[in-house]
Design goal:
Elements (H helix, E strand, L loop, with lengths): L1 H18 L1 H11 L6 H32 L4 H21 L9 H9 L5 H9 L2 H12 L4 H23 L1 H43 L1
Length: 212
């Protein structure tokens, strides 16, 4: 039981930092028109959360199959995933994850289109290459029911956090402000950067021992 809770805590912190619910909720608001109602935001939150949950289980189930299919070692993926995470972390720290400016007409079209909740909000804004690589890496190191259950539970906690952040994004922006959300996102960027370095160093050290 102790192992389960330790893994649950580790996986939750890791994926929470990478997904950054507060940061993506700010991006969501920037993509939507000012006239968006609370009911529309609730609907978007539900669909986007369902999207990232489905994406998680697809990656969880097919991750090892893809590695075996292309004969990719988990440590090679750790290095590449670490590099992707490092670039993501740099963008988060620099504040360049925010969306580009859109016209009000484009924003109105986005809210009318149900696919907005799936693409781009669900994938790739919330469920991007960084979390994709992380899930495959964590799944590759998960052996037995306890570790896999901890990974699934941790991601569901992250997904719930995303849903709550999206659903209450208007209130979060009201109390934290744009500056507050950016500060949180930059702090998450530092954590993601540290995780990226660990992935890269860990993967490189094993590969060097294996091939040298």
């Amino acid at each position: 039981m102790t192992e389960f809770f330790n893994l649950l805590l580790q996986h939750t912190i890791t994926m929470m930092a990478i997904v950054d619910p507060l940061g993506v909720s700010a991006i969501m608001l920037s993509l939507l028109p000012q006239s968006t109602t609370k009911e529309h935001i609730d609907k978007i939150a539900r669909k986007a959360t369902l999207t990232i949950i489905v994406a998680f289980f697809v990656v969880l189930i097919s991750g090892n199959f893809l590695l075996n299919l292309f004969s990719i070692e988990i440590d090679s993926l750790k290095v590449m995933g670490g590099i992707i995470l490092l670039f993501t972390a740099i963008k988060m720290v620099q504040g360049s994850m925010e969306s580009k400016n859109q016209t009000e007409e484009e924003r109105e079209e986005a809210i009318k289109n149900d696919e907005f909740s799936v693409i781009p909000l669900g994938v790739p804004i919330t469920f991007g290459p960084g979390i994709f690589a992380t899930i495959i890496i964590l799944r590759g190191h998960s052996e037995g029911f306890i570790s896999i259950a901890a990974l699934i539970m941790a991601y569901l906690i992250v997904a719930l956090s995303v849903y709550l952040a999206f659903k209450n994004s208007i209130y979060i922006r009201k109390y934290l402000g744009i500056t507050g959300q950016k500060i949180v996102s930059r702090l998450m960027g530092l954590i993601v950067g540290a995780i990226a370095v660990q992935f890269i160093v860990g993967g490189v050290s094993v590969l060097v021992k294996h091939y040298m």
